[in-house]
Amino acid sequence: MTVSSGKGAAPSEKGAAVGRRIGIGLMHGLYRPRVLGGWRVPTAGPVIFAVNHSHNIDGPMLMGTAPRPVHFLIKKEAFIGPLDPFLLGIGQLKVDRTTADRTAVTNALGVLERGGVLGIFPEGTRGEGDFASLRAGLAYFAVRSGAPIVPVAVLGSSERRGRLIRALPPLRSRVDIVFGDAFEAGDGSGRRTRKALDDATVRIQERLTAHLKNARRLTGR
């Protein structure tokens, strides 16, 4: 595995705030989002949102419904054409998933150091959205920064009935966004060894899976 080089501009906090306003208008205009547990998100200080990922709108939906602006780690393949300056302008982070992307890591840690909110899809890519397979990146950011993790379940975005566009949920359909209790991923020792990160990943997966189960029971999804 190689390590990418090159400098990237720090993600804009003001840009993320603009992105939130765009997300609010877009997601509430196209769908019927219902937010549950938003009060569980710390009102200040660094936070990591760990979000299940089953559909393209999961990121924009969270940007438009979370109580704070979010900087998402997004695969570089999404930054194409005019989307590249737009996503960078609203404070999102480009990441090369084929390398140990040092620039992305630095920018993500910078968001947390400045007391911002970092959004991560810990499964790495779209799938069943069930947190069945987590990558180690979430544990690394949580243990390295000490930021609490807030689990987030986005439910309903994978609904297939009534779609006008195959890649999107039916317009005006309900999407539930359920925030869980914040928790610490580390064991309190401050260790960042491979074993410590592996153990943290296990703890994280248990918490995320339990949150998703509770969210489904709460929403009937």
Model description:
The chain is of the alpha/beta class. It has one domain (32-219). The protein is 35% helix and 18% strand. The chain has 6 helices and 9 strands; from the N terminus they run E-H-E-E-H-E-H-E-E-H-E-H-E-E-H. Helix 5 (137-145) packs across helix 6. It is globular and about 45 Å long. It starts with a strand and ends with a helix.
Structural class: alpha/beta
Helical element count?
6
Average predicted confidence as pLDDT: 86
End-to-end Cα distance, whole Å, is 40 Å
Whole-number total of structural domains: 1
Output the strand order for the largest sheet.
Answer: 2-9-8-3-7-4-5
Q: Proportion of β residues?
A: 15-25%
